[in-house]
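hiii so um. not sure if this is the right channel but i have a protein structure encoded as tokens and i wanna go backwards to a sequence. like what aa goes where. can anyone help
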């Protein structure tokens, strides 16, 4: 029993360290929006109780309409069928600044820090007021993206919807989808959540006190 508890403690500590290596606020979610884990950036964000909350029912939003939509999107991302599960984005209003951009995605099969507390969704938070994005030139240099692809990537990483981006870029949805396929191929990813987790940490990380 002591050996088993020690192993679980070690695994949990390892995941906590891994999550804190990511400067983007990130939550690990279980069934019914239950928060299984989070990094320090996420803990700091929810401690302000401004827009995003952790309740007895799980991760939630202050506004009832947004809380309802968040629960629905987490349910979609954690669908029992892997073919039905999909990523989704949502803006959460807050009192102190710009809305938070949320990106909910199904978790890879291996994301399971403790067997009895299976993680089935990942939630990334982008704070437009606190989390700068990398310059488009950085993405062009690192991944060989075109100027348009770099700009589109940054918009997606910041939680914006592809159809909304079409209006801003004055392009059709079919063209945006073609750009997205090229971006995914160059980045070696398959989902928008993977894009966010890859791009957002490239921004300047917050300073850490020693």
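sure thing!! here u go:
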């Amino acid at each position: 029993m002591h050996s088993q508890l020690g192993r679980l403690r070690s695994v949990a500590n390892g995941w906590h360290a891994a999550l804190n290596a990511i400067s983007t606020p990130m939550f690990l979610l279980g069934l019914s929006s239950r928060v299984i884990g989070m990094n320090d950036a996420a803990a700091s964000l929810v401690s302000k109780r401004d827009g995003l909350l952790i309740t007895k029912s799980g991760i939630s939003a202050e506004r009832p309409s947004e809380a309802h939509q968040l629960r629905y999107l987490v349910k979609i991302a954690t669908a029992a069928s892997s073919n039905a599960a999909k990523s989704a984005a949502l803006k959460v209003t807050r009192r102190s600044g710009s809305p938070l951009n949320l990106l909910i995605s199904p978790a890879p099969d291996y994301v399971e820090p403790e067997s009895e507390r299976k993680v089935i969704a990942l939630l990334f938070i982008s704070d437009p007021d606190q989390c700068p994005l990398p310059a488009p030139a950085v993405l062009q240099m690192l991944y060989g993206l075109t100027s348009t692809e770099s700009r589109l990537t940054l918009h997606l990483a910041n939680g914006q919807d592809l159809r909304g981006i079409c209006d801003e870029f004055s392009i059709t949805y079919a063209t945006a989808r073609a750009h997205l396929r090229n971006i995914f191929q160059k980045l070696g990813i398959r989902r928008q959540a993977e894009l966010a987790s890859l791009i957002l940490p490239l921004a300047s990380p917050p300073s850490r006190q020693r």
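oh and Residues 2-126 form a domain with the Beta-Lactamase fold (CATH 3.30.450.20).
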